[in-house]
Amino acid sequence: MIEVPEIQPDDGDGDGVQIDLISGERMANLRTMEKIRLILDGVHDGNIVILEEGLDPDEESRLIEVTMSEINPEEFTGIEIETYPRPSSDDGGLFNRLMGRESDPDNKLTVIGPANRIETLHKDENLISALVTRQ
Amino acid sequence: MGLLTDLRSSISRVTAKLFATPGQEPKRIGIYGPPNAGKTTLANRIARDWTGDAVGPESRVPHETRRARRKEDVEIKRNGNSVTIDIVDTPGVTTKVDYKEFLEHDIEEEDAVRRSREATEGVAEAMHWLREDVDGVIYVLDAAEDPFTQVNTMLIGIIESKDLPVLIFANKIDLEEASAQQIANAFPQHETVPLSALEGDNMDEVYDKIAEYFG
Ligand SMILES: Nc1nc2c(ncn2[C@@H]2O[C@H](COP(=O)(O)OP(=O)(O)O)[C@@H](O)[C@H]2O)c(=O)[nH]1
Ligand SMILES: [Mg+2]
To answer: Which is it for the CA torsion B30, B33, B35, B40, positive or negative?
Structure first.
């Protein structure tokens, strides 16, 4: 349900859009800074990073802090981030229901991308619609 | 169980008040929220109302506040009691800063690059403060803007995870498009106080709530 228009396989000239889908299991074994590195390294490469399970609040706070320290006028303007479900709502949200899971705030699907390439067009309880532009 | 813990926490609150000495460290209250919500305008109003001078410049240019600014020992008197707080005005938290945004405000390129670097350092510092150094949070939102943003949701989540007392301020209610109700609906688990920091509307309730939550 994440509509990312015009995704085509990378044809080799480096103008495709790469999506890194990182499983909860993969993240579970990493320390906070390792998670943040994994995410930001992907984003620096221009990829869209999708986390099956989101970050906890402390990790989100560090992600913002590290992102800030890496912003550089010529190359990196920061990140766009969207999560599902909204942590403030008690409803588990579509993705959790689809995956047959109980509602759990740590279980929020998270989409992170380079701020200069991803633009959220629309977001509601059921849909993230994002426009990804090529580099 | 719940009753016992409630009892215990109210006893510790009472004893904390009893043993509070006049020389006690003031609580450090961080003013957080997105850029342009009116954080500095609010911080200045509080500082002017109770100390006579301001915290820092307010501006339509985003990221005018690029470093956290502190106003110490602000004593707020309420109904015969007084609470003393340090207010920390922070840069608006964001996940992105593009120096080109500054160029739209007639700022030269070199200055824009410098401002954006300072802004990123300021946001990083504000996040660090939130994790380590604040005792309470005033979260300021522009009531004429959509509160359902990812940054707001994340920040409120971070604040909740730290168990910090938090008040949500629905600012700019002087604007016709403003809806304090929409802000209250977005964060039903917290107390929302409507105000206009610019016009000084509803400041009595603002100070009552500050005394109640952070006293
Ligand atoms: N109409 C209106 N404008 C306000 C209010 N509070 C602040 N502003 C304006 O919003 C802009 C941003 O204010 P500022 O305090 O610098 O925001 P900050 O980035 O959150 O610190 C300035 O132009 C202020 O004059 C308010 O209560 N009503
Ligand atoms: Mg400011």
So the answer is: negative
